[in-house]
Each structure stands twice: as C-alpha cells, then as structure tokens.
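Dear colleague,

Thank you for sharing your sequence with our group. We've completed the structure prediction you requested, and as agreed, I am returning the results in plain text so they can be pasted directly into your records. Please verify that the sequence below matches your submission; if there's any discrepancy, let me know and we will rerun it promptly.
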Amino acid sequence: MSKADLAKADLSKADLSKAELAKQEIDHELIRALAKLLDETGLTEIEFERGGQRVRVARQAQAAVAIAPLVRAATLEATPLPSGVGTVDPSKHPGVVTSPMVGTCYRAPEPGARPFVEVGARVRAGDPLLIVEAMKTMNQIPAPRGGTVIQILIEDGHPVEFGEPLMIIE
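Please find the predicted structure tokens below.
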C-alpha cells in the first residue's frame, strides 16, 4: 500500500469518527424549538440543516383526509358582523387566523360535507377550522384561541399564500 493510500484510509477513519461524534451531539434545544414551531403552525413535519447536521422533526398526522378535486361553484360566504362593528381590517385584527403555508384551502373535511366552522360558530383553542393541502398532504389548521368566528375571508378550494388572513376569531 502506498503512502497516499494510507493517508486516504486514515482520512476516511477520521471522517467516520467525526460523523459518529456528530450523531452523538444532539441539539435538544433545537429539537424542542422545532417541535414548538410544528405546534404553532399546525405543520406535520419540519427539517432543518446547518453545518452539515440535519434535524427532521415530524409528528403523526391525525387521520389525514383525502379530498378529491371537484368543480364547485365558488361563493364567498357573506359575513355578517355584530352590530356596532364596522369593516374589520384582517391584517390589524388581533383575532386573525393566517395561513401557516402555501396550498389549497378547504373548509370541510371532505367534498359535500359540512364546513368545520361557519360565521357565528363558537370555537375552542385547538378546534379544527379548515384544511390546507400542501404537497398532497392535508394539514388541519387549528383555532389558535377560543372565541366566535366573525369573518371567513377565503373561498373553499382556492389557493392561499403563507401569512394570508383566513378568518377572524373574536
């Protein structure tokens, strides 16, 4: 074996021991922060890579619902406001629920089913409000807080952007 071959073998062993060491050094705080981000956004999986170390945090999705695309008459729900309340600017309202991802928004668990919520419905924190389909994964969007749904700002089956206001809970 030549000196170059021996050097390569030693280097491979050094790389292997570094890889093993990196596997042993787990950043528990990063994992906790990513898990908290999953809860806050309603996502089911998140992956993060830094400095050659990759961390993937996933949770088992609650019964994923497959929604077949249907041609539906798109109607934006009339949203009556309580008396004495003027037009609500969604971006400034403290009870706005925004989309945590880009995808297609569905108000019901399956085509033809009743919507998760209607205007005037009382919800508790964690109750499902709607589904955003992203990359063929159905992601239930939970209510961030309890209250009454006063406005629904999206149409069923239409695309939504990250941060787009979906509804207002007061």
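Summary note from our side: Confidence is low (pLDDT under 50) at residues 62-85.

Kind regards,
the structure core
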